[in-house]
Specification:
The chain is α/β, with parallel strands linked by helices and about 475 residues long. The chain has two domains: about 1-270 and about 305-315 and about 375-465, no CATH class; about 320-370. It has nine helices and 20 strands. It has helices at about 70-80, 115-135, 215-225, 250-270, 320-340, 345-370, 400-410, 430-435, 450-465; strands at about 1-10, 30-35, 40-45, 55-60, 90-95, 135-145, 150-155, 175-185, 190-195, 210, 230-235, 240, 275-285, 290-295, 305-315, 375-385, 390, 395, 415, 425. The chain has an eight-stranded mixed β-sheet. A four-stranded mixed β-sheet has the order 15-16-17-19, covered by helices on one side. The chain starts with a strand and ends with a helix.
Length: about 475
């Protein structure tokens, strides 16, 4: 038998914090809160085994990315508070673009609030996990699948042959909604895990409000319909965007999030973790003869709990020296500052801000990987909860990666996610490199062929755990 508990902590940042999700934006600080940001924790163990070393903690955090330093800080705080090893923690983030952005930034206004806010995540995460442990009860788990079309391939080609970020109805898209149900022994919902691949970029450059984007309404909808606590685990969303995006209208992310939440709730209500067999008890004479059936338990649910950590050795593409990138970043940032100080128009500010945002991404990669031209071990984590595999990698993977792993996995159900356990940039499929576009430019540190290698290494990890 498994056992699990959940908790949620509010981490909504202060109004005025640097709000730097877009190179095309003209504002700097957040001007309000539309919906809170949170950390949601699920702790799972084998019932009766309260050894912290055997517990697994899964966190769902409303932020865009978590680089290694913050990821390590969160793990350390959780271990110090609960004794759950760092290796037994999955630190996932929704990737919302309408919250604060960590690390390097071209934003000045409100930037002094960013680092303290990210540092607050470590004690908040530890508190959430501790509270989840205090609520642990015996549970059963199973999964199911649904379908929702709030996402679309986001790599169309313009009339002049350039890939841009928009709507490509002919491109590869993954509409699958995977749902894992965790119920107590009386059938009451404890937790719901929702896995779906879509960039949380419904709110765009004109938005000046803090929001979790669509994952917030997903959780809210599932919890209102089903009960318990819902965690959103972002999927392989590297080339998946929303059908309506880059807006300043908050009603749109709430509507699309509710649409996905309704489908997830529908799937959740069909899942029964207890194996049952149908038995005709009697035929009751009435106006029509009525079949009276019972659906009695016919076995036990899968209570296997396990975790494996491995890595994929991926080729890193060659990049300019860090000093050169830093010099370019400083020059571009200085130009942006000049435009702002002389009272430039919104159009002029956007034109100056866009290259600053791009150079920020390239600088991050050169600081992480150097000049490249070698290989780097990228972590792979697989958690087994009963018949379900939860795969997590620290990149923005194209949807084809997740679909390939899900289709070939030995598990009954496979929830595939990027945006977990650190951040190393985009991981595009090989076909995308000659096409060009945002996802294969300064945002992607990997050579062509790395995604295909990641697929095989993820499958190898799942197979090892299932053995």
């Amino acid at each position: 038998m498994l056992a699990a508990g959940t908790a949620r902590i509010d981490i909504t940042p202060p109004i005025g914090i640097a709000h730097a999700g877009w190179g095309a934006q003209s504002h700097e600080g957040a001007e309000g809160i539309d919906m809170p940001l949170t950390i949601t924790a699920l702790v799972i163990e084998t019932d009766g085994n309260t050894n912290p070393a055997d517990r697994i903690a899964i966190l769902d955090i409303d932020t865009c990315i978590l680089v290694e330093s913050y990821d390590v800080a969160i793990r350390s705080a959780i271990t110090e508070t609960t004794e759950i090893p760092a290796s037994n923690q999955r630190i996932s983030y929704t990737h919302t673009h309408s919250g604060p952005i960590e690390g390097l930034s071209w934003i000045v206004e409100g930037s002094e609030m960013v680092e303290p806010w990210f540092h607050s995540m470590a004690p908040a995460s530890a508190k959430a996990v501790a509270e989840a442990i205090a609520r642990i009860v015996p549970v059963r788990a199973d999964s199911g699948t649904g379908h929702c079309e709030i996402n679309i391939n986001r790599r169309p080609i313009s009339s002049d042959g350039k890939v841009f970020t928009g709507r490509n109805p002919d491109g590869f898209v993954d509409h699958e909604v995977l749902v894992t149900a965790v119920d107590d022994l009386d059938g009451n919902p404890v937790a719901t895990l929702v896995n779906y691949a879509c960039h949380p970029t419904i709110m765009g450059p004109e938005n000046k409000l803090i929001t979790p984007d669509f994952p917030g309404p997903v959780r809210e909808t599932v919890e209102s319909v089903v009960g318990g606590i819902c965690l959103f685990l972002q999927g392989a969303a590297g080339n998946q965007g929303p059908i309506e995006g880059f807006t300043g209208d908050t009603s749109i992310y709430r509507r699309l999030g509710k649409q996905l939440g309704v489908e997830a709730a529908r799937v959740r209500l069909t899942i029964d973790p207890i194996p049952r067999e149908e038995k005709l008890e009697e035929i009751l004479p009435s106006g029509a003869d009525l079949g009276i059936y019972t659906f009695n338990q016919s076995g036990e649910s899968d209570d296997t709990l396990g975790l494996i950590e491995t890595s994929a050795s991926l080729p890193i593409k060659e990049m300019p020296p860090e000093s050169e990138v830093q010099a370019n970043f400083d020059r571009i940032s200085a130009n942006l500052e000049r435009v702002r100080k002389r009272g430039g128009s919104i159009a002029e500010i956007k034109e100056a801000a866009f290259p600053a945002k791009r150079e920020t991404l390239l600088l991050r990669h050169t600081q992480t990987f150097g000049q490249g031209g070698n290989k780097r071990d990228i972590p792979i984590q697989v958690i087994r909860i009963g018949n379900t595999a939860l795969v997590a990698i620290p990149v923005e993977p194209f949807a084809e990666i997740g679909t390939a792993v899900k289709e070939r996995s030995p598990a009954d159900w496979t929830l595939f996610s990027g945006y977990s356990n650190g951040y190393y940039g985009y991981l595009p499929m090989a076909y995308a490199y000659p096409e060009g576009g945002y996802e294969v430019g300064p945002t992607a540190p990997f050579e062509s062929g790395a995604a295909e290698q990641m697929i095989e290494d993820c499958l190898d990890a799942i197979n090892k755990l299932w053995k």
